[in-house]
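Thread: Newbie trying to understand structure tokens

Hi all, I'm a second-year student working on a class project, and my supervisor (Dr. K.) asked me to get a predicted structure for one chain before our next meeting. I've only ever worked with sequences, so writing a 3D structure as a token string is new to me. If someone could post the tokens and maybe explain what I'm looking at, I'd be very grateful. Here's the chain:
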Amino acid sequence: METHQHNILRTSVLLLLLLPVSLSFAQNDKREWESLFNDVMSMEDSETLSWQETYDMLCELDDNPIDLNTATREDIETIPFLTEIQVMDICEYLYKYAPMKTLGELAMIESLDYYRRELLRHFVVLGDVKGAGFPTVDNIMKYGGHELLATAKLPFYKRRGDDKGYLGGRYAHSFKYTFSYGQYVKAGLLGSQDAGEPFFTKGNSLGYDFYSYYIQLRKMGRLKSLVLGRYKAKFGMGLVMNNDFMLGKMASLQQPGSTTYNIRAHSSRMEANYLQGMAATVELAKGIDVTAFVSYRDIDATLNKDLTIATILDNGYHRTEKEMEKKNNSSVIDAGMNISFRKNGWRIGATGVFSHLSRDLRPNTAVAYRRFYPMGNNLWNASVNYAYISHRWQLSGETATGGCGALATINTVSYRLTDELDIVALQRFYSKKYYSLYSGSFSEGGNVQNESGLYTGINWHPSANFRLNGYFDIVYFPWAKYQSSFASHSYDAFVLASYIRGRWDFLARYRIKVKEKDNQKKTALTNRVEQLGRVAVRYDGGTWTLKTQADIAHVSYKDNDFGWMLSETLSMKPLQWLSVEGNLAYFDTDGFDSRIYIYEKGTLYSFNFPSFYGNGIRYSVLARADVSRKLMFIAKIGTTNYFDRNTIGTGLRKINHSSMTDLELQLRLKL
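---
Reply by user tm_fold:
Sure, no problem. This is what the structure looks like when written as tokens:
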């Protein structure tokens, strides 16, 4: 007991001492976009399922920024943190005043708040208008850029499966080659290997366990976009087709009712939920676009005894004999089309998708919450969507159906009461019988099925220095769900306040979620009450930044679980070519339910948001060296040390030690 208290005291004193000691560094500089992205988008802990997709898009934009002076509306719409009103206002400003001379002109666009304005500076440039138009083949080959990115993760420990069970080695590694010419041409090849997967052996004769390959051409006259290879697609509000990123509740408050029509290359390490084949968007007439796509790909699946599909898998793991048996054991053909019309602030669209699986889907419908899962091998869905945008109003919605014979609909409205105050309302009804293989939209339950709810929110920013955001969401689930054997309700409330004064940033947030779950005997429902709180203070010293953060979590369900974490992050740029970031955190939670999530900077194209539970300490150091414009190197070493256990993990992932250390290395070469 004395040792435990001593560890708490020692860690707390060390964290508190970091603040005054670090104040000896100096001078001002822009904060890195990863921190700003964390401020704008990372308010929802683990529930936003597409963190990696969104982060990958921003990494690509960082490498290939959009030229605002030659950008189309579609170009600006690809920036994932902008609202439709902000996109419209940027387009109007460019129409009236282009070319922009400096990025300082972004302050003239009133709908752009401070955070998005600062974030936007990292992803746009101002070029020469005379350079607009699709380049010649000679210019593409002469001036196109080559980039090679190699990444490896080396653990300083062994899991049980490393000795017996896993087919491959302990190391995870990947490479990513990209050729690009501005926003016009992009081609690439990616290979990825998870730890434990075989390499050039035992089912992976081609080396890497996963490859992605693609070429994308844009802005070729009426041909707005063409993708060959592996790609993502998103139409409307995602009720029928969205295998790209989607927004969680806090992000939806910042981007109410976002409707998009987008196809883009699949250039991330995500090993599932992509399409493979060809997709194209063509402008038929002014304001009328048509997108068509066709896809064939192999998928992983758990099979029933009669060789039908019980579950389509998306984790991408092929480390053991059983996992390897499920690799590519089924296939799916997809074809679809979207047509959209835009005029005077109105946008109307229609989407249709057909899928044919090589085996029948036959989930175990004897389990109540799986009763209305998709079945059969021929599936189709269709929808219509709409949106209206003005300087004050934004309305949007989508209604879908399919072979299931059921409806799903989502509708949003937002209104700017004043230049400082926005209100948002979102209604959705997803029938318990509705399903679509590629749906992804706003939801509490994680699926576009078995949910009806009303979400209301407020954005108030009375000055450039202060903002207040909050929402309340009430949801009804008319059919059984996982761990809820009867119809149930959920209530979710959130509030966030932030204040900037000079070099200081202050943030406080609180969330309470009440969800009805099965009691211990599964004879009735009882409330699971989860409360999360965070207070953070950041000081920007120019060549260094210091952030102190305190998190708490309390969950009342079958037991009362409480947890807390105190963390410190120090970012420094001691030399023009060298940047360093260190993290130190102490956590103490009663169990897994009260786990704490924290953002931790990692290598490029790796968004790290790990969770911690139990009692222990986490510390890491990341160094990035931009040796030249062509060569960049990143090294990160991180350790998690538990005080309350002698082993970590279970099964094949079990580590016979109380701590685990990983080294991550990354090399980027640009030509």
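A couple of things are worth pointing out once you decode it. The two ends are 58 Å apart (CA to CA). Residues 1-31 have pLDDT under 50 and may be disordered. Feel free to ask follow-ups in this thread.
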